[in-house]
From TrEMBL, chain A:
Keywords: Cell inner membrane, Cell membrane, Membrane, Peptide transport, Protein transport, Transmembrane, Transmembrane helix, Transport. This is Oligopeptide transport system permease protein OppC. It comes from Methylobacterium haplocladii. It is a multi-pass membrane protein. Gene3D superfamilies: MetI-like. InterPro entries: BP-dependent_transpt_permease, MetI-like, MetI-like_sf, OppC_N.
């Protein structure tokens, strides 16, 4: 995973364990970190594939099943079928003369004072609760119909929201956006930060001093404010959020890489490369950056949760991801508005967010420990 | 020491200048203006309004005027709160935000340092693990989740404390917002203290103290002195952020602080209010970083002499 280049005599040494191999083994032995890694993979897979398997699309609205509590049972629940039929019959202006239900199919005898318009039966499937009706009997005068319709079996594991949308599907789809933003913004921060830090550390002298002075000034800027200004004043969308977040977060990375570079550039293998006539960019790409990968990976892992948190903060304020797209921050905002009537609307996205963030932090800490050469432990 | 402080103070001036300049032009470059309404004003009225606020001048003149008044400590009139200057708004809101923020900071320091020290001295044991789990959770649960949860539990279910409102600074109204603000900081400080202490505790001078038979609490005090440095260095921005108010906490608990002004100001294109908030936060960040650095220099003589 973290392939570290050794141009020195190390590469010809006998079965010495590589740093990468050692780190991997340490990481697997670190129970919390490994569990966190598995959790993250599970969350990512669920977000990626889950929405296809829940049986609902994130935008589908079930007006009759608003604020359904989470659970495993099928909806509509048995005791709500009769009241639902009565309600629908009232709308169709029909009287329910006979009602029976067996094996998930309702059989209705409907009457009216005048000829029944059969088109009105479309109220049944339109209610989300019943399938399309089949007419079994029609009286001569058309004032009595016997109809059968399937009772739907809808599952909402995490319940539905205030509009009647499946919360599980929405949480997973939102997770895609949150994770995507976390990863992309981190990657952007990584690219800028690593390049900036490596160049600054490698060149040294006045250039380095100037470049680091810029970083110092940027550090003191109230950056979240600039992000908000960008978002509000320029009517930003998702991608600008990404850029804005990355712009805030590359500073730490630059500092870390610079320190590493400075200590690396006086080492023998870099001197050797210089003596062989390699250009500075080539030395940076081939010898410096690969050797700073350890701390970079750690910093990046810890950056992802911070970006996700920042994104959800902005989305909570209504400045980040915009409808119809959704993210965990958006869902949490919706949930906290409906907290009293539908507490699961806050619990579900907040739970997913917290689990992901805790896992990322644990993984980052684990990686830091695994890559720390000072913590040598018995093999 | 004084020379060190002065040097740091001088370094802060270009930073503040960059902040002011950047935000001034960024805001003005954005489309839309403070007097854009659903139904546009008649051109003549618009002209008058703009002349009244000096918006008819070239941008560079406006910038110069702003810098001049800023140097006098005048942040200008607010565009969206009629008849009020930005200074008025801050004079009303800052005490609220600063009260909440300083209480939260004190709580965070007390509990964060306490838990961190506990964890470091009980390394690998139950207490250490519990602090670790608590800290990871504290860092991961956003304030906009904790706030409504606290409201539901302590405000509605148990009905011990008011759900929101300021009520003239009634202590009962402060409890929940302060806890909400402090929780993530407690977690962050505890984590930092723990790792810094673990580092310090392996150093020779601590081993010597232990060998000399000093009681554990005196060893702890001695070790904390070294471990405080990394904590201090992160505290500057944290303190500034806490004291200048949190949009989230002030919105959810309905508090009349200044945290909300920035987002509201940005949405209303209230140039002076947005600028005022940026300047205030930047000054606070610089000031608290300075305080943190000076405190660090007190703790560690090497910082005063070197660099």
């Amino acid at each position: 995973m973290f392939h570290v280049e050794h141009s020195g005599p190390m590469s010809t040494a006998t079965p010495a364990t590589s740093l990468a191999g050692l780190a991997r083994r340490r990481l697997i032995r670190n129970r919390p970190a490994f569990a966190a890694l598995l959790t993250l993979v599970a969350v990512a897979l669920a977000c990626l594939l889950g929405p296809f398997m829940t049986g609902h699309t994130p935008e589908r609205i079930y007006p009759d099943l608003v604020r359904t509590a989470p659970g495993f049972e099928a909806h509509p629940r048995p005791e709500t079928v009769r009241p639902a039929i009565d309600r629908l019959a009232f709308r169709m202006r029909l009287t329910v003369e006979d009602f029976s239900e067996r094996d998930g199919i309702v059989r209705l005898a409907l009457t009216a004072s005048q000829r029944i318009d059969e088109r009105s039966l479309s109220y049944l499937p339109r209610s989300d609760l019943f399938g399309p009706p089949t007419i079994l009997e029609r009286s001569e005068d058309g004032r009595r119909l016997v109809v059968e319709a399937r009772v739907q079996k809808l599952h909402f594991l995490l319940g539905t929201d205030v509009l009647g949308r499946d919360l599980l599907t929405r949480c997973l789809v939102a997770g895609r956006i949150s994770l995507l933003i976390g990863l992309t913004a981190t990657l952007a921060a990584l690219l800028v930060g690593v390049t900036y830090g490596a160049v600054s550390g490698m060149l040294g002298g006045a250039v380095d001093a100037l470049m680091m002075r810029v970083v110092d000034i940027l550090y003191a800027l109230p950056f979240v404010f600039f992000v908000i200004v960008l978002l509000v004043f320029f009517r930003a969308g998702l991608w600008l959020v990404l850029v804005a977040v990355a712009a805030v977060e590359w500073l730490d990375m630059a500092r870390i890489v610079r320190t590493q570079t400075m200590s690396l550039k006086s080492r023998d293998f870099v001197r050797a490369a210089q003596a062989l006539g390699l250009t500075t960019p080539a030395i940076l790409a081939r010898h410096i950056v690969p050797n700073t990968l350890g701390p970079i990976v750690v910093a990046a892992t810890l950056l992802v949760p911070r970006v996700i948190l920042l994104e959800s903060f902005l989305s909570f304020l209504g400045l980040g991801v915009q409808e119809p797209a959704t993210s965990w921050g958006v869902l949490i905002a919706e949930g906290s508005r409906a907290l009293e009537s539908a507490p699961w609307m806050l619990a579900a996205p907040a739970g997913l967010l917290v689990v992901s963030l805790v896992s990322l932090n644990l993984l980052g800490d684990g990686l830091a420990d695994a890559l720390d050469p000072r913590l040598s432990e018995p093999r | 020491m004084i020379a060190y402080a002065l040097r740091r103070l001088l370094q802060a001036i270009p930073t503040l200048f960059v902040v002011v300049t950047l935000s001034f032009f960024l805001i003005r470059l954005a489309p839309g203006g403070p007097f854009d309404l659903e139904r546009p004003l008649p051109p003549a009225a618009m002209e008058n309004l703009k002349r009244l606020y000096g918006l008819d001048q070239p941008l560079i003149v406006q910038y110069g005027r702003y810098l001049l008044s800023l140097a006098k400590g005048d942040l200008g009139p607010s565009f969206s709160f009629r008849d009020l200057t930005v200074n008025d708004l801050f004079a009303r809101g800052l005490p609220v935000s600063a009260t909440l923020g300083s209480l939260a900071l004190a709580l965070a320091l007390l509990l964060g340092l306490g838990f961190g020290t506990l964890a470091a001295f009980r390394r690998g044991r139950m207490a250490d693990r519990l602090v670790g789990i608590g800290a990871s959770l504290g860092l991961a649960v956003p304030t906009f989740v904790t706030a409504p949860l606290l409201q539901i539990v302590f405000g509605l279910s148990l009905a011990w404390l008011p759900v929101g409102g300021w009520d003239g600074g009634n202590p009962r109204n402060l409890v929940l917002p302060v806890i909400t603000l402090a929780l993530p900081q407690i977690a962050a400080i505890a984590r930092l203290t723990r790792s810094a202490l673990n580092e310090v505790l392996t150093q020779p001078h601590i081993r010597t103290l232990r060998a000399m038979g000093l009681p554990p609490w005196r060893v702890a005090l001695q070790a904390l002195r070294g471990a405080l440095l990394p904590v201090l260095s992160t505290l500057g921005p944290v303190a500034a952020a806490l004291l200048t108010g949190s949009v989230i906490v002030e919105t959810i608990f309905g508090l009349p602080g200044i945290g909300r002004y920035f987002v509201d100001g940005a949405l209303n294109r209230d140039y002076t209010l947005v600028m005022g908030t940026v300047v205030l936060v930047a000054v606070m960040v610089v000031a608290f970083n300075l305080v943190a650095d000076l405190l660090a220099a007190v703790l560690d003589p090497r910082l005063r002499l070197g660099a």
